[in-house]
Design brief:
The complex is a heterodimer of chains A (about 290) and B (about 290). Chain A has about 290 residues and is an alpha/beta fold. Helix content of chain A is about 35%, strand content about 25%. Chain A has 11 helices and 12 strands. In chain A, the strands form 3 sheets. A 6-stranded mixed sheet of chain A has the order 6-7-8-3-11-12, sandwiched between helices. A 4-stranded antiparallel sheet of chain A has the order 2-1-4-5, covered by helices on one side. In chain A, α5 runs parallel beside α7 and α7 runs parallel beside α8. The longest helix of chain A is centred in the C-terminal third of the chain and has 17 residues. Chain A is globular and about 55 Å long. The relative contact order of chain A is 0.16. Helix content of chain B is about 85%, strand content about 0%. Chain B is built from 11 helices and no strands. In chain B, α5 packs parallel to α8. The longest helix of chain B has about 40 residues. Classes of the chains: A alpha/beta (about 290), B mainly alpha (about 290). At the A-B interface, β1, α4 and α5 of A face α7 of B.
Amino acid sequence: MFEADPYSTISSNGGSSVFSAVIPAIEFQDVCISYDDNVILDHIDLKVGRGDCKIILGRSGGGKSTIIRLILGLLKPDSGRILVDGEDITDYSEPEMMLVRQKIGMVFQEGALFDSISVYENVAYRLREQHRTEDEIESEVMRMLEFVDLTDAVDKMPIELSGGMRRRVGIARALIGDPTIVLFDEPTAGLDPPTARTICELAIKLRDLQSVSSIFVTHEMNNVTNLSSEYATVNEKGEVVFEKEGENLCLINTEVLMLRNGSIIFNGTDEKLRMSSDPYVTRFIRGERSN
Amino acid sequence: MRRPSTGAAVAALVAGNSRFIVTLTEANACRSARRLMDPITRFLSELQEVSLLIWRSFTSLFSRPRYVSETVKQMDLIGVGSLPIVLLTGFFTGGVLVLQVYPTLQYYGIQNEAGNSVATSLIRELGPVLSALMVSGRIGAAISAELGAMVVSQQIDAMRALGTDPVRKLVVPRLVALILMLPLLTVAADIMGLIGGGVVAYGMYDQDYNVFINSVRGGISTSDLVSGLIKPLFFGLIIGSVACHKGLTTTGGTVGVGRSTTDAVVIASIWVIIFDFFLSKAMQYLFDLGQL
């Protein structure tokens, strides 16, 4: 998974053909969007391979979340094309986008849980909309809550949960129905480091054990370190363990894309990011204020 | 190419236009542009948005998915939940009408027509309008605040991301519930108003019950009843569409929710009163009302 072909995982994971395996899960072709006179995204090109994770890094208000909203069809670009699983969704109508959204999971910044229904119902929401049977819904919900380690909170209301728990329920809700693409919109913002790490571990498990393609929007370097230097594997006891990449094993399914004022100023591995000579990138990594 | 203006963007959303689909919240990111519009353009822009929201809700009725259980839940919240305040309003309005009108009628020696006077004014005007204003205050505010809070906490976006159309799931059940329940609440208010009038006539002016009841029966015609039931249908549509629109276009966090709620109640109440005038005129034309 981590050695040669970044797209190899999908083939071994039941991809329909070699051809479909090399089609990027998400592709932006020269995408631009602006509000009035403010350019939000300026000629953006990006690709996320199947089973890959793309970390989008940048300051607040830099257009990171706009990328995610474009993928979901919550916004439409002024120009350029957006492809999801090779399907050009740029001009899709709302009903057509509803079908595309079924294969995409979205984790919102504050969780965006539905306040009026319980954790169970929040996670079950997508399956209820698809009119699945109650048995099927229950087993899937419990499986997802187990994945995020929140089976105890199944009957709680969102208001009773801590910030970290809300994000984890948000992740469980996004993952139900086994989407092939998951979008994380600053899921660790405002969380303490251990809880933020838990969220990153969930993203790593999705990437490495379930070959889910993902975009992880963040402005925190800790997340970049966690996501791009560790991988998940299953030990002899069947437990999921996290290991650091080393000399023999280098993660190539995770890349960093950095935005500045709507333009891409860096796209590559975390090692290259840290070695970048760009003054803006350097200052950002150090946490210094830049103009 | 630049983003469309706020009005066009929201209009595009509610119309399901594929080219400019944006969320209502995103569209309101351009609210600064709207502030620069002159009042007439702003009014027309909002009118267009509300009209398109109504149209999209109407067309949603004819295709799946339909949220019947959500509609029933809203009918319970709107109908049963509003019953106490509507009954109280009706009772005391009927009572105060007799209290004010009876001495004047007595002066002219036609105090036996007190029931007629109360029934006519309650069933034609006060019942529908006061019920609508009470429901506007209670339900319009609740709908706007609920949807506004959902917008600012990204729950509407989450709903769309999970493949649900917020207009079908949230707007249609509320509109249908309001349109169906407001006429029933109006009937309840009318009945309580007549009871209130009867109690005051008997308790304060010693008028015999039978005299009051006979006067009421003489004052109500089928046209009055029909017109009194048609008006609340329109008022329900006005309250629901304005409240849903204001809620879904909320911006500015919790402060914005408060602003949307106030706007929803004020605008819906004003439109109810304005529409009442034109509906009354239309009823007069259609049913030859106003002729004693």
